[in-house]
Amino acid sequence: MEKLVACVQKKPDAICRLICFPWAGSGTSKLAKWGRLFNDSIEVFCIRLPGRETRLEEPFPKDMTSAVNEIISVLLEKLKEKPFAFFGHSFATYLSFAVALQLKEKYGLEPVHLFMSGAHAPNSASFLAIKSLIPPDEIDDLLILMKIVGGNSEFPSDEDSWTDTVLREDARILHTFSFEKTDMTSPFSCDITYFSGSDDKIFDAKGWQELTSGNTSFYELPGDHFYLMKPSNQSFLIKHITRSIENAGL
């Protein structure tokens, strides 16, 4: 599990695990640190895909299905142990959603809360438009990559694992993800919270309301696509996520 998951502070008595999925082109260095910021009731797992950090020599996932299958095969027993929630930002919103969808469909497991950030809802026309920008075998232009997997900003200058190769491969993974809501039944019953930066591009996020029978809430925080890097916004996220999980009746 250590290959896939970064956990900087183990909390065996935690009532819930927060599974964090980093944005495209990145590793675990930023979100894994959240493990030290939450109280002892929440343990943080941060997902590390192949092709970065300690998995640098491993081949990148060939598609979204491969990435999802690895995550579930490694985490399934842990997810059965105690309640869990997901946080995904940008590209990782779709990865976390795809993992949650398969967990629900195949194993009857559902997060107690989905925290989504900086991305179009997967059932929106805007998301489909992103995928039509360029064929995945021609993804080379950095500006186009940013349109596909990011918003209005440059990647953090201190991102220690970012490379254009990793970004390109993550964009290819995103190109293989598809979701179409074909009936009136919502795939989830948990609450969903969506976060975005006030200076980021406009994301089509309202579609999240169609994907759960639970409550859906939206928060706009000051900043660009990487608003969550600001200490004040990070503090807000930690407090809001903690409150939401503690109010989930675990």
In short:
It contains 6 helices and 7 strands. It has a single domain (5-247), classed as Alpha/Beta hydrolase fold, catalytic domain (Rossmann fold), CATH 3.40.50.1820.
Can you describe what's shown?
31% of the residues lie in helices and 15% in strands. It has a single domain (5-247), classed as 3-Layer(aba) Sandwich (Rossmann fold), CATH 3.40.50.1820. With 250 residues, it is α/β, with parallel strands linked by helices.
Q: Mean of the pLDDT scores? A: 88
Helix-residue proportion: 25-40%
Strand content: 15-25%
Largest sheet, in brief, is: 7 strands, mixed
- What structural class results from the helix and strand content? alpha/beta
CATH topology label: Rossmann fold
**Uncertain regions: pLDDT < 50 for 5+ in a row?**
none
Tags for this model:
TEII, fatty acyl-[ACP] hydrolase activity, Rossmann fold, alpha/beta, oleoyl-[acyl-carrier-protein] hydrolase, 250 residues, EC 3.1.2.14, AB_hydrolase_fold, seven-stranded mixed beta sheet, 31% helix, 15% strand
Which helices and strands appear, and what pairs or packs with what?
Elements: E1 5-6, E2 16-21, E3 42-47, H1 64-81, E4 84-89, H2 91-107, E5 113-117, H3 125-131, H4 142-149, H5 164-175, E6 191-197, E7 216-221, H6 231-246
Parallel strand pairs: 2-3, 2-4, 4-5, 5-6, 6-7
Antiparallel strand pairs: 1-3
Helix pairs in contact: 1-2, 4-5
